[in-house]
Amino acid sequence: MGCFQSKTANVITSPDHPPVQHIPGSVDNDDQVDHDDQVDHEDQVDHEDQVEQENHVPCFKRFRLRELYDATNGFSGNCIVPEGEMNTLNVVYRGKLEGNGLVAVKRLSRLTWPDAQHFVDQATAVGKLRSKRLVNLLGYCVEGGERLLVAEYMPYGTLSEHLFHWNQETFPWEMRVRVAYYIAQALDYCNVENQKIYHDLSASRILFDEEGDPRLSTFGLIKNSRDGISYSTDLSYTPPEFSETGTIIPESVIYSYGNVLIELVSGKHIPPNLAVDIIMEKNAMLLMDSSLEGSFENEDVTKLVNLASKCLQKNPDVRPDTKYLVSAAAPLQKMEEVSSHFLMRLPTSTVIQPNMLSPLREACSRMDHAAVYEILLKTGYSDERPESDLHLLTQRVQELVQTKNLGDNAFRDQDFINAIKSYSELVRMMTVPYATVYARRSFSYLVTGEHNPALRDAMLAQICIPEWPIAFYLQALALWELGMESDARDMIDKGAELEAMRLQRD
Question: Which of 78, 160, 250, 363 places its Cα 20 to 30 Å from the Cα of 177?
Answer without folding.
Answer: 250
